[in-house]
Amino acid sequence: MSDPELSLVHTLLLVFAGIAGTLLVASVIGLILRARLPEGRTNPVIANLNARINAWWIMVLLLAAAFWAGNTAVIVLFAFISFQALREYISVTHTRRGDHRALLWCFFFFLPLQYGLIGIGWYGLFSILIPVYAFLLLPISATLGADTTRFLERAAKVQWGLMICVYCLSHVPALLALDIADFEGRNLQLIVFLLLTVQSSDVFQYVWGKLLGRHKLAPEISPSKTLEGLLGGILTSTAVGAALWWITPFAWWQAALIALTINVLGFFGGFVLSAIKRDRGLKDWGNMIEGHGGMLDRVDSVSFSAPIFFHIVRYWWG
Amino acid sequence: MFDKALAAAFCGFIKMLTGARAIWRDAGPEMRARVYYANHRSHGDFLIVWALLPPALRVVTRPVAGADYWLRGRVRRILIKRVFRGVLIDRHVKRGDDPIGVMCAPLAAGESLIVFPEGTRNQGDGLLPFKPGIHHLAEKRPETEFVPVWIENLGRALPKGGMLAVPLLCSVTFGAPLTLKPGERRADFLARCRNALLSLDPAEQ
Fold it and tell me: So where are chain B's domains?
């Protein structure tokens, strides 16, 4: 390899050209489906499909812009994603007056600090900041509110929200801080691999579910998930992961195994967060991303797969 | 002109800060004299209801506010009188005051009001008991529609005594309008209004 910087740019250009090409095909299919509808008729599934595809364009362009601007921009982008996800989560979670300070700590101290630690690459502290320090400090802060009504429940909700929305998601940009032999300066490609695999799994589960879905998986948790969608989605995006081995430090079969692992985790991430939504009587976490729902609807799978992916890479390659 | 621009800026600012959206759950917005009555947990309550009304309705909707607070200081006085066009009521009623008459005047002119019948900011869940003011209004102007408005999360974002706001996403839910039934007793009317508002609380569902 001649110049790692140059080959990073080259690789990213190739990958993003591939994504843009795929989205272009999707957009054309969406337009054809809409054009084939009888005059004056609309179909909610097709309208939602087109809204989703348009939102994908925006999300991919934002991600590409952040990659182009460099590591700091990627960290800031994910800090913003965490902020929005935590905002959606806390907005629908019942807390009381006494939790006000604990919530302020979450948004204005732990979230920025977590991403700041990733920015300076202090692994020792960012890996324990939330599970140790925040988990002790937040209940202390809540007790100072002198309100014991449903105390355990309230403390658990705030901690769990910080865990999913900030700690777990922050492992995406944390990949930038890993030292991997013969892979210097190319860690962005690990983020591409993770996001592309997990998000394509969501997309393929949706596509296979719509095309072949017969058997509902767990209607009480997620009415739209089907067995056919699950199997088709996970297998297809495992193939996507394997086909991306050349942008990673993995061999093709390792890439396939890792992709399978993070896809299964990603699926259960969506599943667990759906259960929380049902418990709160909601369909979506928010309405920020047209067609998809809220930020948390889009990143639920990433939040479960990112820490595991991080640790797999760190243990065997770091 | 300047007042209008400032009002629009305040509305835009609070909408952006809170990500707030209006949910017309049971009936649509309508151009007629109405009393919007809402739960009260935060200083920003009147502003968020006002901001989320469609602009055409907002210009003829006036928040009822405490004169003792809003007349202290020049900036506040200009804001409440010219920008928000508040209807000022002295909360410590003196002999000769007629707060109900003051509130009826805009209704008679076809304008709407925003009121908080709990009378003070609630620091717990649910609703405090209602003050009888909205019943007096209904007796004076029985054709007036009372629209329950549930403000979700603003009180949690910025509670009484809090200095910093938690950036929660807020929502404002408008329910079906009520009117005073002939011969309805005060306690019954207040209870009916209060239950209609409580039924909009997501925590109750």
Answer: 2-204
